[in-house]
Amino acid sequence: MRVNIDYHIEVDRHYYSVPYSLVGEQLEARFTAHTVEIFHRGKRVVSHLRNFTAYHHSTVHEHMPKSHQAHLEWTPSRLIHWGESVGEATAQVIRTILNSKPHPEMGYRACLGIQSLAKAYSHPRLEAACRRALQGQACSYPSLKSILKRGLDGQPTLAQEPERTSPQHENLRGGHYYQSPTKLVQ
């Protein structure tokens, strides 16, 4: 079996990590009721405890590239805390992104992108962009990037449209007209 780009191989419907340097290489696996051994050119490169949970991952931290290991240092609470250091709207956008995913980790890339926007622009501009994004229910990295790039963070937000009412005059009948019994003219 060939090592996938995510440095995992599938063995009996479960994914086991191998050192990332083996991505694209052909490997062999041998498994028992308790262990999974993975070989490269006849030499064992890793042994995992067997896991029977279908389509889940067993990952050894050291198998990850350094860039992926850095992502493990981030947690939802750390990302939210960073957002709070910018402002309440930024923290709320971070919460919204993390809560919108089946697993918070799926929102990390967007949150780290938002951090890069804070470096490229400024904290006050990012906070203003987040307020605008929250108002428009557009809490995503691409939306924030667009708001900042187009300078919309400095523009006043659109006020909510006023409730429309019909003008009052004698040709309009109100609800009271339809609630009273009608008299037939003969």
Outline:
This protein is α+β, with helices and mostly antiparallel strands and 186 residues long.
Kindly name the structural category: alpha+beta
Percent range for β-strand residues: 5-15%
Give the % helix.
25-40%
* The number of domains: 2
The topology string of helices and strands comes to EEEEEEHHHHHHH
DSSP strand count: 6
Biggest sheet descriptor: 3 strands, mixed
Mean pLDDT: 87
Overall geometry: elongated
Radius of gyration: 29 Å
Number of helices: 7
Q: How are strands sequenced across the largest beta sheet?
A: 1-2-6
Low-confidence segments: none
Please report the distance between the alpha carbons of the first and last residues. 92 Å
What does this protein look like?
- The chain is α+β, with helices and mostly antiparallel strands and 186 residues long.
- The chain has two domains: 59 residues, no CATH class; 81 residues, no CATH class.
- The chain has seven helices and six strands; from the N terminus they run E-E-E-E-E-E-H-H-H-H-H-H-H.
- It has a three-stranded mixed beta sheet, with no helix packed on it. It has a three-stranded antiparallel beta sheet with strand order 3-4-5, with no helix packed on it.
- A hairpin with a 2-residue loop joins strand 4 and strand 5.
- Helix 2 packs antiparallel against helix 3, helix 3 crosses helix 5 and helix 4 packs parallel to helix 6.
- The model has no long low-confidence stretch (mean pLDDT 87).
